Each structure stands twice: as C-alpha cells, then as structure tokens.
Amino acid sequence: RMSDKRINLLNSIGFVWDRALQRKAETIESKWDSTYQLLTQYVTEHNHTCPAYREKYKGESLGHWVNTQRVTYNLQQQGRLDASTPSMSDAHKALLDSIGFVWVLHRKAEISESKWDSMYQLLKDYATEHNHTCPAYQEKCKGENLGHWVNTQRINYSSQQQGGLEASTPRVGVGEPVGTAGGAFRLARSWHGAVLGLQIS
C-alpha cells in the first residue's frame, strides 16, 4: 500500500495518475486553442466576436463554439453548471476578454448594433484605402458585402427623409433584400459618404 506521505510527495510535483485522462484533457485543450485562434482570425476579418449560431468559418462550426463558451461561462457564474461539463478557466476567459468577447447578448437588437458598428468600421477602412465611400453594389471587402450594406444605408436614409421609414426599422439592414430600381433608389444615390461623417486623411 502506498502511504499518504508518498502520495502527497508525488502530488506536490504534479504527478500524473491517469495518463488516459490526461491525454483526453490535452486533446480538449488543443481543440479549444485551435478554435480560439480561428475566432481571432474571424475577428480580424469581421470586427466582431458574434458569428451566427449556425455560422461556419473555415470549415469549423465557429458560431456553435462561441455560443458554448458564452453559455458555459454564464451558467458557471450562476452556479448552475453541470458537474459533467468542463468549466471556463480563468486563462480561457482572459484570452476571450482580450479580443472583446461578448458574454451576454440581451436582445437581437444588440447583435444588429454590433454588426452595424463592424460594417461601419469596415467602410472606414475601405475609405482610407480607396479615398471614397462608394463601393460597387456587389463589391465585397474582407468577405463582407460592403457594397450592399452601403446601398442599404442610402435607401434607409432616403426613406427616412421622406418620412417612409418606420421607427422600428433597424439601421443595419445587412442581409436583407434591397431594391435597386425606381425613384427611391435614384434619390438614394445622391446620399454621399459625407453623411457618415467620414474623414479621409
């Protein structure tokens, strides 16, 4: 029989008692690290940490992974995390905090607001590079449909000026079908980047 003294001595130097369990833990940690790196790449491209739940990125279910981190952390904070579910370590939380991870999504509107802000930042970057704020309608920038988004802002602004935009209409409109014909669109074309207050140095 191994004495308590010997067990304690081995424990004091991090002795591994179950090699199979350690290998499993190492595999899980390695997977977490690789998906985290994927999220940092996503943030670089999209300027936010909120991929849609079913959204995939470079073949990985990034949206599902992000949601798992958020749910795990919030349940842990509430003391409701199941014992069989791995907890969120301080190290993992610190890494996610470092890239502006959003831990709580209160309303769908907050996601829309975050998306609008990220697209606005993308347009600022585009304006700095191209010295204008008029990407072609189907033009993409860093994987995003920037031309479509810019056109949506023009349409919404013109409708608002004419009193046709409802108060409940989000300012985002990303991903929604936008008409490109008719008087509203022709009027919208007159709305220039100055409306956004962009300064190109």
Task: Considering the chains and any ligands shown, give keywords for the structure.
mainly alpha, 53% helix, 7 helices, 201 residues, single chain
Count of individual helical segments? 7
Summing up helix and strand content along with how strands pair, one would put the structural category as mainly alpha
State the share of residues found in helices, binned by percent. 40-55%
Largest sheet: none
As a percent range, the share of strand residues is under 5%
User: Any low-confidence stretches, pLDDT <50, length ≥5?
Assistant: 172-197
Choose one word for the global shape: elongated
State Rg.
Answer: 24 Å
Average pLDDT works out at 76
N to C succession of SSEs: HHHHHHH
Distance between the termini: 76 Å
Q: Give the total of beta strands.
A: 0
Tell me the layout of helices and strands.
Blueprint: H1 4-12, H2 19-46, H3 62-77, H4 90-98, H5 108-130, H6 146-161, H7 183-188
